[in-house]
Write a structure and sequence with these properties.
The complex is a heterodimer of chains A (443) and B (352).
Chain A: E1 22-24, E2 30-34, E3 44-45, E4 52-53, E5 58-61, E6 70-71, E7 76-85, E8 91-99, H1 122-131, H2 144-148, E9 158-162, H3 172-179, H4 181-195, E10 199-205, H5 209-219, E11 225-230, H6 239-247, E12 262-266, H7 267-279, E13 285-291, E14 299-304, H8 309-315, E15 323-328, E16 335-336, E17 350-355, H9 372-376, H10 383-391, H11 395-400, H12 411-415, H13 422-442
Parallel strand pairs in A: 1-14, 9-10, 9-12, 10-11, 13-17
Antiparallel strand pairs in A: 2-8, 3-5, 4-7, 5-6, 7-8, 13-14, 15-16, 15-17
Chain B: H1 19-29, H2 31-41, H3 43-68, H4 78-88, H5 96-111, H6 124-135, H7 137-140, E1 143-144, E2 159-160, H8 163-169, H9 171-175, H10 181-187, E3 189-192, E4 198-202, H11 206-211, H12 223-235, H13 242-261, H14 269-274, H15 278-285, H16 296-316, H17 323-340
Antiparallel strand pairs in B: 1-2, 3-4
Helix pairs in contact in B: 1-4, 1-12, 2-3, 2-12, 3-4, 3-5, 4-5, 4-6, 5-6, 6-17, 12-15, 13-15, 13-16, 16-17
Classes of the chains: A alpha/beta (443), B mainly alpha (352).
């Protein structure tokens, strides 16, 4: 079975919620819609306090080339424009809306009927994706329409659809592939048309045999789409690792995936593209897994963006007694949250509730040079060495040892028997070296 | 939501690994070889092993408690490994005080002086062993011949050189053409009394060498027991295959070339594989993670270096056995190897 070559680890999968069907979460009384829930410039707010908004109405406008539109996820009244603590722990501008009865903006098709006919042209598709505020739903939230615009001189050959979901615990992509498989493949076809590619590969790890079987069967009805089962290995869902696993090509250091003729999109993004293009529906809701060893009732929810995380926890059985940590995302790359009041954003794939006893890190011991971090690193780096260089502030050596290639997958720290916070050091190194590189560009 | 939440950077899960687990799996892997040494050398082996382990742990404890006044790491098992390996590398007849000197050198100088676990550039047990070999050459090369615990001859009666030591003595005879390797193996290696007269022949065949029926250090005698432990460590991923394969392979090829050129002087490389401390060194000391290189390529280079130096010392050096020196010499090169042999980076391939 295919997989990537270098490094990788096998954390316990713990996919507790993989057989829980997606439930629609009731719309909360109040939503907090962040204007910076995508990679790039924050969107410009178009509404003011007291404005009545409808579900799907544009409330914040893309403010640059790399930015995205934001639509109201609910119907109601704008009660406040304020800074709200988001999942990163920082207070950022958000639009707070008190909800009333759900009324959708005109022109949005909210019926469950599947619309198979693709009528828009290549340029219209990209324009629509931009208008509907679609961003990458795998977690990086890069605006999707920007990805569709292949730079001059480069040629896209493959569209890769990421159904790997290599993070332990998370099951939102898995459920989406099972329940919205056909819509997702129509979305894939739309993306293929926008990119002008003839071939698309859906990569799915072999721990989701039902999804592989379901999509393989569906894909026979679509031109150019194949489904490829992959050997289970973290971090296969990383863009570079997935391209390597599926095509054998390697994205060169400090270059973009398009260098290999590949564009990668998440299954959630493909579904959002389907809704945007075929249903005229902006990206205002997504599937979020609420799970973890402390979760009382691991579940998958379809949630409106802006819903406070506490609402999801409430519907997944409530706050557990032994709750020690809430993670936004998966256990390998997710962020520990400072508050359960932080809202769901476009990039939220899961909420993980960790018990107290598993929340603290092990005590840090001396490095015993066991080289487990070196063999775990999927980028072929030497995490122990970079950590040492960073702790001695040797930024030139840190840069020479390719700290900027790090994808922050956490495999090194996961595998370290001495419990060393390798990724903390490496993040600091990336931050400092990044500053140095940018200042060099200015001269 | 009254609980205080823990905040930390990702990843939030950790492999179920610790220094202690790694160290103890090495200790468990050495149990078969310990049992074989008890079987062949009797209570003396128990004495050497116990004193060595206790002394190593105690030295580490005293230094950490009274000299460094820092955290105690004696629970992590690394001092026990050094103790067992030191015992494995000395004859069972060694005096108690010499073992204690060895433990002080191993732990005190080779490990704690550099900063304790993870900081030592050289394998501590080997430093102790080589220190003893140079300081107490007679005591360190007087080998009781292994006799089964329940055999009919008494242990004290027979002492003799190791197979390799004896072989080395025969090199002059070999080169003078008085005798050939074939004859030596058929008849056995001559054994001498203090006056230099031949008193008998040490019959050594593959079977004896494999099982441990020969003179030698505590832990090096039974190849089978050592390999059992090595398989355990490889299965538990405590060690990786690169260093052992490169070490054994290069030693075999190097010895094989000379054997093919002149089989009258150079012995069949298979003997070199199973005689002496090679297997012990290959699986238990060269693989010491602290003092060996980090990248796969570096580990292979390290293993090849160890193999070649071992055979050079065995063939032409002043000592019959070259494993300890070879590993220590390559330990010294580990930092340079780390710098020169980086892991294969992602993204270096040519694009389509």
């Amino acid at each position: 079975m295919k997989t990537f070559k270098l490094g990788g680890v096998h954390p316990p999968e713990n996919k507790f919620s993989s057989s829980e069907a997606i439930q629609t979460l009731p719309i909360p009384k109040k939503v907090f819609v962040s204007v910076s829930q995508h990679l790039g410039a924050p969107a410009t707010v178009l509404v003011k306090r007291g404005d009545e908004v409808k579900t799907g109405q544009l409330i914040a406008k893309s403010s640059g080339f790399i930015s995205a539109n934001i639509h109201s996820p609910v119907t109601g009244k704008v009660s406040k424009l304020d800074n709200v603590m988001d999942q990163s722990g920082y207070k950022r501008p958000a639009i707070i809306i008190d909800t009333t009865e759900d009324v959708w903006e005109d022109g949005i098709d909210t019926t469950p009927d599947i619309n198979r006919e693709i009528t828009l042209t290549k340029d219209e598709i990209i324009k629509r994706i931009n208008e509907m505020g679609v961003v990458g739903l795998g977690g990086a939230t890069f605006p999707t329409h920007v990805k569709m615009m292949v730079p001059d001189g480069k040629k896209a050959e493959y569209l890769i659809i990421n159904g790997v979901e290599c993070e332990p615990y998370l099951t939102s992509d898995h459920r989406l592939m099972l329940e919205k498989g056909e819509e997702m493949l129509i979305g894939t076809t739309i993306l293929m048309k926008a990119l002008g590619v003839a071939k698309a590969i859906v990569g799915i790890e072999s721990n989701k045999p039902d999804a592989i079987q379901h999509l393989t069967q569906l894909a026979t009805k679509f031109n150019g789409i194949t489904v490829q089962a992959l050997k289970v290995k973290y971090p296969q869902g990383g863009e570079k690792q997935l391209i390597k696993a599926l095509t054998g090509r390697e994205v060169p250091s400090a270059k973009l995936p398009i260098e290999t003729g590949c564009v990668v999109d998440n299954v959630g993004t493909a579904f959002a593209v389907y809704e945007a293009v075929q249903k005229n529906k902006p990206l205002i809701e997504r599937v979020v897994t609420v799970t973890g060893k402390a979760a009382k009732k691991p579940s998958n929810f379809r949630v409106r963006v802006g819903t406070p995380i506490s609402e999801l926890i409430e519907h997944a059985g409530g706050v557990p007694e032994n709750l020690g940590k809430i993670i936004g995302g998966g256990p390998m790359m997710g962020k520990a949250l400072m508050s359960a009041e932080a809202p769901i954003v476009k990039g939220s794939s899961g909420i993980l509730l960790m018990p107290l006893e598993e929340s603290d890190r092990a005590a840090m011991k001396s490095c015993i040079r066991c080289a487990r971090c070196v063999s775990a690193c999927p980028m072929g780096l030497e995490p122990y060495l970079i950590a040492q260089e960073v702790s001695h502030k040797m930024w030139d050596r840190t840069e020479a040892d390719k700290v900027m290639d790090c994808i922050e997958c956490g495999s090194c720290q996961y595998t370290c028997p001495s419990g060393r916070p390798l990724l903390d050091y490496i993040r600091l190194g990336k931050f400092k070296v990044g500053q140095i590189i940018r200042s060099r560009g200015k001269n | 939501m009254d609980n205080l939440l823990t905040i930390s950077g990702s990843p939030h899960v950790h492999a179920n690994e610790s220094i202690k687990k790694i160290m103890y799996s090495v200790i468990y892997a050495m149990i078969p070889a310990m049992l074989v040494s008890f079987y062949f050398f009797g209570l003396d082996a128990v004495r050497v092993l116990a004193i060595s382990v206790v002394a190593c742990v105690l030295v580490e404890f005293l230094i950490q408690k009274y000299l460094i006044k820092g955290d105690l790491t004696i629970n992590d098992g690394s001092a026990i490994i050094t103790g067992v390996l030191l015992a494995f590398n000395v004859p069972s007849s060694l005096s108690t005080w010499i073992i204690i000197v060895g433990a002080i050198v191993s732990i005190g100088i080779a490990k704690m002086a550099f900063g304790g676990v993870g900081k030592n550039p050289f394998n501590p047990a080997l430093v102790g062993r080589v220190f003893l070999l140079i300081s107490f050459p007679v005591q360190m090369t007087t080998w009781p011949i292994a006799k089964p615990l329940f055999g009919n001859s008494t242990l004290d009666a027979v002492t003799g050189a190791t197979f390799l030591g004896n072989l080395k003595d025969q090199v002059n005879n070999l080169e003078a053409g008085k005798v050939t390797v074939g004859q030596l193996i058929e008849k056995g290696l001559p054994q001498y009394n203090e006056l230099g007269d031949i008193v008998g022949y040490q019959v050594t065949n593959y079977q004896d060498l494999l099982l441990g029926q020969m003179g030698g250090s505590l832990g090096e005698i039974s190849v089978i027991a050592l390999i059992l432990g090595a398989i355990f460590m490889l299965a538990k991923k405590t060690i990786t295959w690169q260093i052992p394969v490169a070490y054994l392979g290069s030693a075999f090829v190097f010895a094989g070339i000379f054997w093919l050129i002149n089989p009258d002087v150079y012995i069949n490389p298979l003997y070199h594989m199973i005689a002496g401390g090679l297997i012990l060194g290959v699986f238990y000391m060269a693989t010491d993670m602290v003092s060996s290189p980090m990248s796969v390529k570096g580990q292979i280079v390290f293993g090849i270096g160890c193999g070649v130096i071992t055979m050079v010392i065995r063939f032409w050096g002043g000592y019959p056995e070259g494993v300890s020196f070879a590993i220590l010499i390559m330990n010294a090169f580990a930092p340079v190897i780390n710098r020169g042999f980086k892991p294969a980076r992602f993204g270096k391939l040519k694009m389509v």
